[in-house]
Amino acid sequence: VLNKDNPLCLSFGKNLDSPIVWFGKTGFVRPENIKITPTLTTKYILFVGKQSIEIELPTLGEQFVENSVAAAATAWACGASLEEIKHGLTSFQPVEHRMRPLRLKSGVLVLDDTYNSNPSAARAALETLKQVAGLPAGRQGKRKTVAVLGDMLELGKDEIERHKELGHM
């Protein structure tokens, strides 16, 4: 099971003699029509070859779609049906502090992504924040957003530069 969107996996896959199940945007197992819903879940159509099924992940953000498609490809390679794959993906329980929407009494929406982060996860969280802010909000139009970010630990010598890049975003 290899990610067709990853150049290293493409290169690695060319040298394998065993069958490969490719996943990703152009893979045999791929997502299409990804949307964040007003109820703060993520929906998409999962294609496995020419077969498809609608998936609604109980998580918020497109970044979780790639993980779920990798899981779907693995399950497919092990012989699971589309219905079994859907059941597994939709019954998944998100990790605490990983893009958890919390609605405060005041109506403010907090996206709790305070688990130890990294540059790509933080970028994905900010992209999700922008998408959520653009969801229909009655007469309010676009919602005001504020990002409070924790440390991205273990970045070594690139720490300052990575934090600056994220601040610009």
In short:
By secondary structure, the chain is α+β, with helices and mostly antiparallel strands. The protein contains 5 helices and 7 strands, in the order E-H-E-E-E-E-H-H-E-E-H-H.
Which helices and strands occur, and which strands form pairs?
Layout lengths: L1 E2 L3 H8 L7 E2 L5 E8 L5 E7 L2 E7 L5 H15 L4 H9 L9 E4 L5 E4 L6 H15 L25 H10 L1
Parallel strand pairs: 1-2
Antiparallel strand pairs: 3-4, 4-5, 6-7
Helix pairs in contact: 2-3
Structural account:
- The protein is of the alpha+beta class.
- Helix content is 34%, strand content 20%.
- It contains five helices and seven strands, in the order βαββββααββαα.
- The chain has helices at 7-14, 63-77, 82-90, 119-133, 159-168; strands at 2-3, 22-23, 29-36, 42-48, 51-57, 100-103, 109-112.
- The protein has a three-stranded antiparallel sheet, with helices on one face.
- Helix 2 (63-77) runs antiparallel to helix 3 (82-90).
- The radius of gyration is 18 Å and the shape is globular.
- The two termini are 33 Å apart.
